[in-house]
Amino acid sequence: xxxxxxxxxxxxxxxxxxxxxxxxARKPIRGGSPTSKHATPRRAEGKPATPAPxxxxxxxxxxxxxxxxxxGARAFPPAPQRSEREALSPARVPDVAxxxxxxxxxxxxxxxxxxxxxxxxxxxxxxxxxxxxxCSRREADEWIENGWVTVDGVIITTLGxxxxxxxxxxxxxxASKHQTESVTILFNKIPCDDLDTPVExxxxxxVDLIRAENRWPEDGCPVRFKVGHLRGLALAGRLDxxxxxxxxxTQEGSVARRLTGGDxxxxxxxxxxxxxxxxxxxxxxxxxxxxxxxxxxLRAEVSWLSEQQLRFVLHExxxxxxxxxxxxxxxxxxxxxxxxxxxxxxxxxxxxxxxYLRTGERF
Length: 363
What we know:
The chain is an alpha+beta fold and 363 residues long. Among the domains are: 125-177, RNA-binding S4 domain (Structural Genomics Hypothetical 15.5 Kd Protein In mrcA-pckA Intergenic Region, Chain A, Roll), CATH 3.10.290; 181-265 and 342-363, Alpha-Beta Plaits (2-Layer Sandwich); 267-341, Alpha-L RNA-binding motif (Alpha-Beta Plaits). The chain is built from nine helices and 16 strands. 17% of the residues lie in helices and 19% in strands. It has helices at 84-88, 109-116, 125-133, 137-145, 173-177, 206-209, 253-260, 282-287, 321-328, and strands at 149-151, 154-155, 169-171, 184-189, 199-200, 203-204, 234-236, 244-250, 268-276, 291-292, 295-296, 301-306, 309-314, 331-341, 344-345, 354-356.
């Protein structure tokens, strides 16, 4: 049986409704729509192509400078803007031009040298003496103090004096024969209870204690006293204010270290006058077994010199050590005198006098 084919009726060219016409089907224009930016004008036959009128874009509304587009938050404060009046008005021009600055006047020669720097201070006399005689500053100071240096014929004895570098400096022959020496001095201190002894910050001052007039007359040392012997004189081995006896002043560092060093174990002998009744076994306690401030004392040698006087030989030197030791055994120390340090003894040195350490003596 033959296959049937369904045929649709053809549409009429015109609509059944009067006055209504059907628009013809559009054909695509190659190159896009006329309003497209890629559209190209069609050239008519025999006529030149006319350019299409420029298309105007709509202005976009951008946020102000410094404001984020997404959140609208201000990132940084806006820059200061000039007002419209200031922007439109021209810059003001002064009616009269300022006068050109005058060049500064050249200062005189004297003021120029003053501005460059202060005048140099005159050198010290000891420096000039040291350079001229090829000696140390210490020796130069000693020569000046002893009156062996003249400046333009005038004797200068003041330390630290400044002189003209062109001055004529002369040194006496005695200075060339002088040999700088370090000295050590022994002084017999008087307790402050008997006589007010010059004290500075709890320590005896060598300048006040050592003088030419209180040198022991029986001192057999041939060294002649000089003012330079007091310079750099240090106290080695102090005494409490109520104690008396041997004080040592020295210019030698080795002597000071042997007397005051932390590992110094030089024997120091004291003669102590006491009052009261000694406890039973007190002498043995004084020799060994006592403590001060919870620190055990080193072994000491203690013996009787007389009924009221004890002899102490210590290997250490604590503040008020002998007075505290006597109080712990029931007696009171009324007079403490140091008579020996190491192998050097006070001897017959009179109280309040001093002498030089002899050649054969050594700490």
